[in-house]
Design brief:
The structure holds two protein chains of two kinds. Chain A is of the alpha+beta class. Chain A is built from four helices and three strands. Chain A has helices spanning 7-20, 25-35, 43-52, 75-100; strands at residues 23-24, 56-63, 66-73. A three-stranded antiparallel sheet of chain A has the order 1-3-2. Chain B is mainly α. In chain B, helix 1 runs antiparallel to helix 2 (17-33) and helix 1 (2-11) crosses helix 4. In chain B, 23% of the residues are buried. The chains are: A alpha+beta, B mainly alpha. At the A-B interface, helix 2, helix 3 and strand 3 of A face helix 2 and helix 4 of B.
Chain lengths: 104, 202
């Protein structure tokens, strides 16, 4: 993919997914990769950052005799997601205008 | 998979154990969930243990930035980790070669200046050490010569005492500057530059 994804947007994409469902690391990575082309190893730093800033929480659930760590969005995470969504809408309409060569 | 994780764990040994366990657990779970059992499957999915560890280490150093900004040793460590992380990725290496060259030039230049100053201080220290007893002995035979020699010695000691903190301060300033430069470089080539899958796995 020719367009690189900035950190804030990647955070937003993960928060958006977690706002629908709780996910464990592998499923979350694959879900992100269904939509955008990023390396599998980019998600761990994202989760670490989101957890450190309190935007997601984790809990463990037994699965096949081991634990699976699930990520869950927090209140702060939902607020941050809303912020990012509105920032993105502004950004998107600006870029669309420029790319389309139109002027309002 | 076991071998892959063992290698990764070994390469993350400089992390504190909580951070290391957390990342190893994450990737153990990841590989189990994705049924990556063979070593080569793991490499195909996540890159080599070395490349993955560089990414994790650089990410940790950068996230901890706020806490140890004034720590000289961690500045040096961060710089090295970032340089290693950049070296691990061929694409990033190409992009950042000029800046890396600049960083190395600064390190070498500053290193030689520092070395020259330290050698001068050491020499002055040795000279003072030897001339103080001579000066004191002179005081009794030839008082004016003895007192002026002693005065010169004290002057040199004063200069050394002023120079040492000044050099330490300058060194810290330089390492901090180099760290900021390399952190900036890291952000430039990776943070805003998520590489497409496969690009870093040649």
């Amino acid at each position: 993919m020719a367009i690189k994804i900035p950190t804030e947007l990647l955070d937003g994409c993960v928060l958006g997914l977690l706002n629908q469902n709780d996910y464990y690391g592998y499923a979350l990575t694959k879900e992100v990769q269904l939509a955008i082309d990023v390396a599998s190893s980019t998600i761990y730093p994202v989760m670490r950052r989101l957890k450190a800033s309190g935007l997601v929480a984790t809990y463990d659930k037994p699965y096949n005799g081991r634990n699976r760590r699930y990520y869950q969005i927090t209140e702060d995470g939902i607020n941050r997601l809303k912020e990012l969504q509105s920032e993105w809408l502004n950004f998107e309409s600006g870029i669309n205008q420029l790319l389309g060569g139109t002027k309002e | 998979m076991k071998g892959y994780l063992e290698e990764l764990s070994h390469m993350l040994r400089s992390l504190d154990s909580a951070d290391r366990n957390e990342s190893i657990e994450y990737y153990r779970e990841y590989l189990e969930d994705g049924h990556f059992t063979e070593y080569n499957d793991c490499v195909k999915e996540l890159g080599t243990p070395r490349a993955l560890s560089k990414q994790i280490l650089a990410d940790h150093s950068i996230n901890n930035n706020g806490q140890d900004e004034h720590n000289h040793n961690s500045n040096v460590k961060t710089t090295w980790l970032i340089i290693l992380a950049i070296l691990a990725s061929p694409v990033a290496l190409l992009v950042s070669l000029p800046v890396l060259g600049l960083i190395f030039a600064i390190i070498i230049l500053w290193g030689s200046i520092l070395f020259a100053i330290m050698v001068s201080i050491l020499t002055m220290g040795v000279v003072v050490l030897f001339t103080i007893p001579i000066a004191i002995a002179r005081l009794f035979s030839d008082f004016p010569a003895g007192i002026s020699l002693l005065g010169a010695d004290l002057l040199v000691i004063g200069i050394i005492l002023i120079a040492i903190p000044l050099i330490t301060w300058l060194t810290k300033l330089t390492t901090k500057g180099i760290k900021q430069l390399s952190t900036w470089l890291y952000h430039k080539v990776t943070k805003h530059n998520y590489q497409p899958k496969g690009a870093d796995q040649q």
